Amino acid sequence: MTAVTQAPERTDVPELRVEHVTLRFGGLCALDDVSFTVRPGSLHALIGPNGAGKSSCFNVISGVYRASEGSVRLGDDEITHLKPHKLAGRGVGRAFQNTALSPGSTVLDNVMLGRYALTSGGFIAAGLRMPWTTRAERRHTLRAAEICDFLGIGGVLHTPVGALPYGEAKRVDIARALAVEPTLLLLDEPAAGMNAMETAELAATIREIREELGISILLVEHDMGLVMGIADRVTVLDFGQCIADGPPAQVQADPNVVRAYLGTGSEDEADGSENAAEENA
Ligand SMILES: Nc1ncnc2c1ncn2[C@@H]1O[C@H](COP(=O)(O)OP(=O)(O)OP(=O)(O)O)[C@@H](O)[C@H]1O
User: Which residue among 12, 80, 107, 208 is buried most deeply as judged by most CB within 10 Å?
Assistant: First the structure.
């Protein structure tokens, strides 16, 4: 993985504040008065067992769902009801659980889609290939290629995404999210569907993104082992409520968290919890 040109020491990274967010689907309360803060430049994990409300929370923050109550603030900006496409302009990059990539298009073309949020020339000028749009396009293409290099997919720039193994396709999705030059990167269960080796490589990549770019990362994740190894701070949801918030070791030792994970009866989750506890011992 090669270094990407961006200063690690940044003063332009705002705090994300989720404040008293409630989300209802008819009679079902998917999020119940949830509050937490992602500190600037931190790697913050949002975890919880099946159905805890993680994806609902991700979707509220990323503008897909409209909170019934409460607010989401990025620095001084209230972004609670901003449409997803407006968020890129506020410095929010998002990679989804089910990659929303165009499988027939190349890696570079998919990542370039992220750059279009930053272009100002307009479609007509671009269509007429005015000199300034050609220059801008060259600059955006170089930057997209640089981001791909950083994520270890620089060797497959011209390969259709549909021909890539799952782990690499996931990196394309993250590259596209980074292409908007975010100060906040939202990752929804990036390790879902990955094998153990891919998950370990992804964990190293996520840590490197935070260290090299100095941006905040909110990682919504089911895999507790992955989270405990890399997060600065962890918020735990269960049945739509925030049951713990703190450094990984503290959260892991919290009896409510252990109960929430073990109480679901899922062997995977129980193993994840115990393994993570061992790792931190
Ligand atoms: N669009 C929706 N309409 C109705 N109910 C929903 C919708 N999305 C989520 N829910 C419900 O909200 C609750 C929280 O679901 P959510 O998907 O946010 O949990 P999760 O923690 O992400 O779970 P998982 O780890 O299984 O993905 C669940 O009871 C779910 O059935």
Answer: 107
